[in-house]
């Protein structure tokens, strides 16, 4: 896989996790307004985005596991960081939403 292809997967991960992050933060705003129907919808959409990000991440992991040489650049490192911080945010927000409910 070329470095450009790996970078594109990195961009996918950033985009999906960025969308999830935005939806999670908006879900908190909806919870503050006691709009739990919209809050739950946003949480579900955020989970879908994170699942898509994981699929892209898994693609890279499978390539490496098969022994393919993957040229990891800063974009891929940034993507991994972005995904992991969004997953952490999801965990924190889920606990916070319990308080709002």
Task: Please explain how this structure is put together.
- The chain has 101 residues and is mainly α.
- The protein has one domain (3-100): Up-down Bundle (Methane Monooxygenase Hydroxylase, Chain G, domain 1).
- 86% of the residues lie in helices and 0% in strands.
- The mean pLDDT is 94.
- Pfam families: PTS_IIA.
- Keywords: Cytoplasm, Magnesium, Metal-binding, Phosphoprotein, Phosphotransferase system, Sugar transport, Transferase, Transport.
- This is PTS system lactose-specific EIIA component.
- Its cofactor is Mg(2+).
Tell me the CATH topology: Methane Monooxygenase Hydroxylase, Chain G, domain 1
Number of helices: 3
From the coordinates shown, what is the CATH architecture? Up-down Bundle
Mean pLDDT: 94
Count of individual domains: 1
Shape: elongated
In the predicted model, the low-confidence regions spanning at least 5 consecutive residues are none
Largest sheet at a glance?
none
């Amino acid at each position: 896989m070329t470095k450009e292809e790996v970078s594109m997967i990195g961009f996918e991960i950033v985009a999906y996790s960025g969308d999830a992050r935005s939806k999670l933060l908006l879900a908190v705003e909806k919870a503050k307004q006691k709009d739990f129907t919209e809050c739950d919808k946003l949480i579900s959409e955020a989970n879908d985005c994170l699942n898509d990000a994981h699929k892209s991440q898994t693609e890279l992991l499978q390539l490496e596991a098969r022994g393919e040489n993957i040229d990891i650049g800063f974009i891929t490192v940034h993507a991994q960081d972005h995904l992991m911080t969004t997953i952490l945010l999801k965990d924190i927000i889920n606990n916070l939403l319990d308080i709002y409910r």
